[in-house]
């Protein structure tokens, strides 16, 4: 069974028929060539396949392609500037040595990008919690957290008696 | 590829119930975080799916004029966590919501799916049990309301009839007003883990005594459950460490814990006794009582 869907990826419009059995990850990787979204576990545990759907981090391995109808999707391929310059979040990941094999990196960069673009403040604990849907088998997470903190500079609240921290 | 034979979208509840009445074999899909995992594991084959994802009216979280809290079945765990009504009135549910899965899962998994999946480990369940939640089920022929305690029948088994859809989770004012509560999820990791035990308590305190206590437990038996004996005992008792210790002991009596790879029966029973007391200690203070030392 096929269904016609219309959606955008990184600002470019697509309109075609998808097999209802396919995940969005299948469509992104196999039909559209956005291979920055990785398949790790395939069951929603690892976050390697995460992309932003209408700005919200979502695991595409357990997201049916038909659900993408009408959505704006952002993958890692759409994060850098058009001229190839890396985004601030990407630069922070490079600068902090937060990338080893790189398999988890697209998802982490996208989630961090969403946090940054939310304009909200986060405590360190909240930041850890927001990144907890991404497994990394290489780095030990410290440098990833540093990169996320750097990306959100000015929006990470470290003062334990601020009302924000208490309200957590 | 998922083993999907057919896929239908409903845009309204009446459209969904009409489709279900026509084809009772349709499998409802909400966030898909249980359904798709089952398909992936081969436990669900040749599925004909009815998606509720386009029914936006089911995502609403509202406070009715009579004080009833109404949570649409399609509200995601992220929506539940960020909702200010729920945070103010029933924080044991928002605490449970944020303890569930990880961010990407919470962004898509729904409270209705959590309840209908029928798992004893469902993170919303112990809180909803403690809050005496009522479930509104709609079918082509009408609607009915079922208390959550009568909804869970066994592991993965719930009291939903063919043709029915869960549309609302409701909490009546008399079940939350004047109560304070606390939720503890005990798990091996702080994120992306299924509970070894879930404990939700609510209590009403007056003049240093318990006026009422309700205790909901997850993973302490084949379904989530309430500790009625302990609750009955607590009524009118002076709040003290002895009273709490007795409540903890009695709570274990209501459980039917078993040994799984996560934890042994004995360990779970120990957790029930200990964590019920800890949760109550915090709840007592939130309810305006003195700290129990
Ligand atoms: C990586 C991962 C981590 C997880 N972690 C947790 C966790 O920590 N805690 C936890 O409790 N769960 C966890 N889960 C399980 C799952 O996410 C939850 O049970 C979730 O709430 C299910 O909701 P859903 O909307 O995705 O349901 P679906 O998968 O769409 O549906 C679940 C079941 O409910 C039925 N259904 C759904 N909505 C309705 C409705 N409105 N009316 C009638 N029937 C309906 C479906 O037919 C199906 O049988 C996890 C799952 C994954 C993949
Ligand atoms: S591949 Fe999707 S979460 Fe692991
Ligand atoms: S860098 Fe290898 S998994 Fe994270």
Explain this structure.
The complex is a heterodimer of chains A (168) and B (293). Helices cover 31% and strands 18% of the residues of chain A. Chain A is of the alpha/beta class. Chain A folds into two domains: 2-78, Ubiquitin-like (UB roll); 88-158, [2Fe-2S]-binding domain (DNA polymerase, domain 1, Orthogonal Bundle). In chain A, the strands form two sheets. A five-stranded mixed beta sheet of chain A has the order 2-1-5-3-4, with helices on one face. In chain A, helix 2 (88-95) packs antiparallel against helix 5 (142-151). Chain A is globular. The N and C termini of chain A lie far apart (46 Å). Chain B is an alpha+beta fold. Chain B folds into three domains: 4-50; 59-173, Uridine Diphospho-n-acetylenolpyruvylglucosamine Reductase, domain 3; 181-286, 2-Layer Sandwich (Enolase-like, domain 1), CATH 3.30.390. Chain B has helices spanning 13-22, 35-40, 77-82, 84-89, 91-98, 103-106, 111-116, 125-130, 148-151, 173-176, 228-234, 241-253, 265-286, and strands spanning 4-9, 27-29, 47-51, 61-63, 69-72, 134-139, 142-147, 152-154, 157-158, 165-171, 180-186, 197-206, 209-218, 225-226. In chain B, the strands form four sheets. A five-stranded antiparallel beta sheet of chain B has the order 4-5-10-6-7. At the A-B interface, strand 4 and helix 4 of A face strand 1, helix 2 and helix 6 of B. Bound molecules: flavin-adenine dinucleotide and FE2/S2 (inorganic) cluster (2 copies). The site of one FE2/S2 (inorganic) cluster has 10 residues of chain A, from loops.
């Amino acid at each position: 069974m096929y269904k016609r869907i219309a959606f955008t990826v990184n600002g470019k419009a697509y309109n075609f028929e998808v097999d209802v059995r396919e995940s969005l990850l299948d469509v992104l990787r196999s039909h559209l060539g956005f291979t920055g979204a990785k398949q790790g576990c395939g069951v929603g545990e690892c976050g390697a396949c995460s992309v932003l759907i209408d700005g919200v981090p979502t695991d595409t391995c357990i997201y049916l392609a038909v659900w993408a109808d009408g959505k704006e999707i952002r993958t890692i391929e759409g994060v850098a500037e058009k001229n190839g310059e890396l985004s601030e979040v990407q630069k922070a990941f490079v600068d902090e040595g937060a990338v080893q094999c790189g398999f988890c990196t697209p998802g982490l960069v996208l989630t961090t990008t969403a946090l940054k673009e939310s304009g909200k403040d986060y405590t360190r604990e909240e930041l850890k919690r927001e990144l907890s849907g991404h497994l990394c088998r290489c780095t030990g997470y410290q440098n990833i957290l540093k990169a996320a903190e750097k990306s959100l500079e000015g929006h990470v609240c470290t003062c334990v008696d601020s009302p924000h921290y208490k309200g957590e | 590829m998922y083993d999907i034979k057919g896929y239908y979208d409903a845009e309204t509840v009446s459209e969904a119930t009409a489709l279900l009445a026509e084809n009772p074999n349709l499998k409802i899909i909400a966030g898909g975080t249980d359904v798709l995992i089952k398909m992936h594991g081969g436990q669900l084959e040749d599925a004909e799916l009815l998606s509720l994802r386009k029914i936006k009216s089911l995502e609403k979280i509202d406070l009715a004029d009579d004080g009833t809290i109404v949570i649409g079945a399609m509200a995601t765990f992220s929506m539940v966590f960020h909702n200010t009504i729920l945070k103010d009135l029933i924080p044991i549910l928002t605490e449970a919501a944020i303890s569930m899965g990880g961010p990407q899962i919470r962004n898509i998994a729904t409270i209705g799916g959590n309840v209908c999946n029928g798992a004893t480990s469902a993170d919303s369940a112990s809180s909803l049990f403690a809050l005496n939640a009522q479930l509104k089920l709609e079918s082509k022929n009408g609607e009915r309301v079922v208390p959550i305690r009568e909804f869970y029948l066994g592991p993965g088994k719930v009291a939903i009839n063919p043709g029915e859809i869960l549309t609302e989770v409701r909490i009546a004012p008399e079940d939350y007003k004047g109560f304070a509560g606390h939720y503890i999820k005990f798990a091996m990791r702080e994120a992306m883990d299924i509970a070894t035990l879930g404990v939700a308590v609510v209590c009403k305190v007056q003049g240093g005594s318990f006026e009422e206590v309700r205790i909901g437990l997850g993973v302490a038996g084949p379904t989530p459950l309430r500790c009625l004996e302990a609750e009955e005992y607590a009524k009118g008792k002076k709040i003290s460490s002895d009273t709490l210790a007795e409540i903890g002991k009695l709570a274990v009596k209501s459980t039917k814990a078993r040994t799984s790879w996560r934890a042994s029966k004995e360990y779970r029973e120990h957790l029930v006794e200990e964590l019920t007391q800890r949760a109550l200690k915090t709840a007592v203070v939130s309810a305006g009582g003195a700290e129990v030392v």
